[in-house]
Amino acid sequence: MARTTFPLSNKDIDIARYTRRSCSDGVREEFLGFEVFHSTQILTEMNNLKVELWRAPVLNCTTVKLVSSRQLPNGEYQVEVQHEATSIVMGEPDARLFQEPVGHDKELRPIDAFKAIREKQGRYNEGYGMAEIKAQEKYDAANRQSQ
């Protein structure tokens, strides 16, 4: 399984669902020193979205470049999204890429982050935002009781 250090958006996942093709479909090219196959597909079910994929068989068919273009009223296509690998290094990724940074605070719920900021400012008991804090505390307490 290929691992990546870049996030995928929901749109990328939707595009991937409609573009299931063989890894070797398309025109053979070279990209960053790897053999890739460049394929183009028009997705009529997504309002004629044009999707171009560059997939590398030696990288478990990983898409190393993706360009999606939206059809304009005049029939031409305008690039809407472009993802492109800038470097490919074979082997396991450095484990530090997947570790929490030193000094990084744990992730907080928005209401807890708001409380922490208010406390740091020394204004926790002031009126601004207190209604939201109290409402969230009441919700949390009811949630704990129901479990």
Give an overview in words:
By secondary structure, the chain is α+β, with helices and mostly antiparallel strands. The chain has two domains: 10-90, no CATH class; 101-146, no CATH class. It has three helices and five strands. Strands 1-2-3-4-5 form a five-stranded antiparallel sheet, with no helix packed on it. Strand 1 and strand 2 (34-43) form a beta hairpin. Residues 1-14 have low confidence and may be disordered.
Topology readout:
Blueprint lengths: L9 H9 L8 E5 L2 E10 L5 E8 L5 E10 L5 E8 L25 H11 L9 H17 L1
Antiparallel strand pairs: 1-2, 2-3, 3-4, 4-5
Short description:
The chain is an alpha+beta fold and 147 residues long. The chain has helices spanning 10-18, 110-120, 130-146, and strands at residues 27-31, 34-43, 49-56, 62-71, 77-84.
Instruction: Estimate the helix proportion, in percent.
Output: 25-40%
DSSP strand count = 5
Strand content: 25-35%
Q: What is the tally of helical segments?
A: 3
List segments where confidence is low: pLDDT < 50 over at least 5 consecutive residues. 1-14
Distance between the termini: 38 Å
| Main sheet: strands, sense, barrel | 5 strands, antiparallel
Our count of domains comes out at 2
Summarize model confidence as the mean pLDDT. 77
